[in-house]
Amino acid sequence: MDPPLPPNPTLVSSIEDAIYEEYLPLPDDPESTLPPYEYAAIDAENETRVLILQPAEQFTDALQVELLHRAIAPAIAHYENANLLAYDAVSYCWGASDFFYGLECQRTALKFTHNVDSMLRHFRKRTRALCLWIDAVCINQSDNEEKAQQARRMGPIYARAEKVRVWIGDAKEKDRLPEMAALCRELAVFKKRLQKERWDVRAFCNERNAKEYLDNFLSCPWFRRRWIVQEVLLAHHLTVYCGAIKIPWTQFMSTVKVMGTKELFQPSLSRNAMQSIQNILAFAIQPSSLIELLELYHKTECSDPRDKILSLTGLADQCEDTSPRVTNVLCDIQLDSPIFKIDYDADWVSTYTNFARACANSGSGLEVLNHILYFGSLRYRNTQSPSWITDWSGNKVYHESLPKYSSWYDPISTEHDDISDNHYHCVDVAEQLGLRIPGIIYNPVQCIPAQEEDWRKGHFEC
């Protein structure tokens, strides 16, 4: 297999950046005479596009690609029979949204960002083409309907990739990436011995300035991006790339698990690095629903508030070949139901409202109410919204749950049999969207405790 360009992994990043910046055209380069690329329509429910990156001898050679339509295979095991082109999916941050025409695609110019430019140059091979799936290029970003359809298929796209390439960004000299890669390799080799002898871990890492390397590395925006959740959980094989350096995901995870131990390094790491560690370690938790994922990854970020929910919906696809990181299919709601569907023409308030309605109607009403405690009501930001709709645009601010449903009534009594299914319904009340909640009347409430802590725990006088 040909190594990625540039061939020397110890290339001084300042020299590389100087070459790179000299080559880059301005966003509206007057010398670009090729017509803009026009996307041909695809069957977005059953097809996607893949990018064929042509080889080149030099890092600074012009990027040349092709976009091909490809069926989304039913499962990885069916590749041989389906005769489909294998591809690597890319997980990355878009970076600054200054698109420019710099990518030659079948005698036309394709728009992309500076971060994608650098990524493609580092991935490019010398003697053979490379097949990639990159959302910013393979999806027509000006077509909201296609974006919605392809977002619905993100699960199969990442689950059926041969490999997921995690692109952190360009390597800067201060990041000390060669040292970080060496640290990951050494910790992977000596992991068992080091985990048994915690004092050896501290000495080992202090001797190599490991905290500084890890802190710089984990402060990269990729680790706080919400879209990576499904991209990592569904991947069968992951490799982390930063400039010309690459680190196997298993080695990187071993490093995070060892150095993320609270008593060793957490107090001295930056806030961004600590948040990145929490996000990474959460990958080991087996999710059971989209509602649970919204709580688990509440501090992850995305530029579009709609994507707080939509970026996780790929995990709800019923794939035959789900990754071992996902033990079951997250089908707590129907993503193609008339109540909730992925729609980039809808605003974020409608997205949150319809998602909450779908959850309530599918039996997750109590979880929806818990999330109002966690995140707050959407009505605080939009006075026209029902009070029971959660504002998922921010971080979790409250960490106690409502009592479990079984504690709301006497388990010996037979009077609650008719509501044992815990079924919530959305209803229209005076042209307002209401939530009908099952319950039993014990006695009228005579007073509500003055202390918020008491009434949140359900301590009322009757």
TrEMBL record:
Residues 87-231 form the Heterokaryon incompatibility domain. Coiled coil: none annotated. Transmembrane segments: none annotated. This is Heterokaryon incompatibility protein-domain-containing protein. It comes from Massariosphaeria phaeospora.
